[in-house]
């Protein structure tokens, strides 16, 4: 069916063909081949050719690594916006919803692979194929959907890079302000100082050369988490001293931050596609359920006790609350900043691959090197400039979560699942459709309410000094 396989890469040359529908009459909702004639059966798992497949444990490690990052340190700030009790329940609920959305995406991918007769598909390919083999009126949208998801993923990773810059700058500022008090610089200046090392390190184009940076970042993160947890559990105040349920107006910030911290939708399909036994990804226990159980537990633990420890004084990253005058605390801040610096290069690799895939064929071969250097430098400068313009870590995290990850992580799987199942059955009383509508409403709530609250906070934070002069009022309108 116009399919070419080479070293695990899948090229769908005849992606718009609908002939496959007649090759699979009575499409099964699972990959079970029972009741289907042998000559008509197509099992994607049997046709995957992965050069270096990952074991089940290896895939679990990859999924954990992608989900456990700097976002966990923002969880205490998220709990402040929800309250202790509401934060605990909200983390469990949002964690379950995020896990379900990942499950829906992977399940849909496995099912459309049967119809497309493709061994595996990525995120964008899955969304495009769901429309291609969905209701007839929606089939012309398949190409647009696939392209949109590609660009949305690129923007998501680039936005995360801005968060990383602010994270690095604030942690370095905390330490250097303590030991070099006569040279107290602003966060904006520290953002600018990250420009040179980031530009240089982001010129690395081969993923294998980034492996040492990944290993170093993992080691530093482990040490930093250990030190942070030591401080969190030392001299804990009573939970009764903390607010149990915060104002509803702050909940959008909580939702957006948790979604930003937990969502790893962009790496799920690559991990599943590279598994030696992909049938172990879903199900119970399954790689997905085990990984997300660990992730939700750790995020809830850090958020719960971090908020108990520091209360309303907790900052965008809980490392910034660690004591200023103690060596281990300062070491944790430096280690975290360096770890995020190394992680920046890994995150940068993904959007650059997407951008170059779109531009590479349009540039003469002799200008490839110059173009690569220019694009990489411009991307780094852009992320640093945006971070320096709005260097508020907590608001930046919630804004990114509201705009990008709520859309890709929640809304997209709900829409794709509805389209895919529209003509295949939506369950008794169309419960699948109603479930997806509820997920979509949550996503749109996080998108609009989270964005509004975050932008309002940014305006209050950075626009307030100029407002009194403009309004002629000594107190200002804010």
Could you characterize the architecture of this molecule?
By secondary structure, the protein is mainly alpha-helical. It has one domain: Up-down Bundle (Amino acid/polyamine transporter I), CATH 1.20.1740.10. The protein contains 18 helices and two strands. The protein has a two-stranded antiparallel ribbon with strand order 1-2. Helix 5 (84-116) crosses helix 6 and helix 5 (84-116) packs across helix 11 (251-262). The longest helix has 38 residues, at 142-179. The chain is globular and about 70 Å long. Residues 1-37 and 464-478 have low confidence and may be disordered.
SSE layout:
Elements: E1 3-6, E2 9-12, H1 20-23, H2 44-47, H3 56-67, H4 75-80, H5 84-116, H6 123-132, H7 142-179, H8 187-193, H9 195-201, H10 211-232, H11 251-262, H12 265-273, H13 286-310, H14 327-359, H15 368-389, H16 393-421, H17 431-463, H18 467-471
Antiparallel strand pairs: 1-2
Helix pairs in contact: 3-12, 3-13, 5-6, 5-11, 5-13, 5-16, 6-7, 7-8, 7-14, 7-15, 7-16, 8-15, 10-14, 11-16, 11-17, 16-17
Termini distance?
62 Å
Largest sheet: 2 strands, antiparallel
Number-wise, the strands total 2
Could you please say which CATH topology applies here? Amino acid/polyamine transporter I
Q: From the helix content, strand content and strand pairing, which structural class follows? A: mainly alpha
């Amino acid at each position: 069916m116009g399919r070419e396989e080479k070293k695990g890469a899948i090229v769908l040359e005849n992606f718009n063909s609908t002939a496959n529908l007649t090759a699979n009459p009575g499409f099964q909702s699972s990959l079970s081949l029972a009741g289907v004639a042998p000559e008509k059966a197509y099992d994607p798992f049997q046709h995957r050719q992965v050069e270096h497949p990952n074991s089940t444990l290896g895939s679990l490690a990859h999924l954990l690594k992608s989900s456990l990052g700097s976002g966990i340190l923002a969880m205490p700030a998220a709990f402040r916006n929800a309250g202790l009790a509401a934060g605990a329940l909200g983390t469990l609920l949002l964690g379950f919803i995020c896990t379900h959305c990942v499950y829906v995406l992977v399940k849909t991918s496995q099912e459309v692979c049967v119809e497309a007769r493709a061994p595996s598909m990525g995120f964008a390919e899955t969304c495009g194929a769901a429309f291609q083999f969905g209701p007839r009126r929606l089939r012309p949208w398949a190409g647009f959907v696939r392209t949109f998801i590609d660009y949305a993923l690129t923007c998501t990773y680039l936005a995360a890079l801005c968060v990383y810059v602010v994270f690095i700058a604030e942690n370095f500022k905390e330490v250097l302000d303590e030991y070099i008090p006569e040279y107290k610089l602003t966060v904006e200046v520290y953002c600018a100082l990250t420009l040179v090392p980031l530009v240089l390190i982001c010129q690395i184009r081969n993923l294998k050369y980034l492996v040492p940076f990944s290993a170093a970042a993992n080691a530093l993160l482990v040490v930093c988490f250990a030190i942070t947890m030591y401080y969190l559990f030392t001299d804990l105040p009573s939970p009764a001293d903390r607010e149990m349920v915060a104002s509803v107006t702050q909940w959008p910030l909580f939702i957006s931050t948790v979604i930003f911290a937990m969502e790893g939708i962009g790496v799920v399909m690559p991990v599943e596609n590279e598994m030696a036994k992909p049938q172990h990804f879903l199900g119970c226990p399954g790689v997905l359920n085990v990984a997300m159980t660990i992730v939700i537990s750790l995020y809830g633990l850090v958020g719960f006790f971090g908020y108990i420890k520091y209360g309303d004084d907790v900052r965008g990253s809980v490392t910034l609350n660690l004591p200023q005058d103690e060596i281990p605390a300062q070491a944790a801040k430096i280690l975290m900043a360096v770890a995020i610096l190394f992680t920046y290069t890994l995150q940068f690799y993904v959007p650059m691959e997407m951008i170059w895939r779109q531009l590479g064929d349009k540039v003469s071969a002799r200008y490839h090197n110059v173009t690569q250097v220019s694009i990489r430098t411009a991307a780094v400068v852009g992320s640093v400039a945006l971070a320096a313009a709005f260097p508020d870590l907590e608001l930046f995290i919630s804004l990114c979560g509201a705009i990008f990850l709520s859309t890709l992580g929640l809304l997209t799987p709900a829409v794709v699942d509805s389209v895919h199942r529209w003509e295949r059955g939506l369950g008794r009383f169309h419960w699948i459709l109603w479930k997806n509508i509820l997920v979509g409403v949550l996503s749109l709530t996080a998108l609009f309410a989270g964005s509004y609250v975050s932008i309002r906070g940014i305006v209050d934070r950075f626009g307030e000094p100029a407002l009194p002069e403009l309004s002629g009022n000594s107190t200002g309108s804010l």
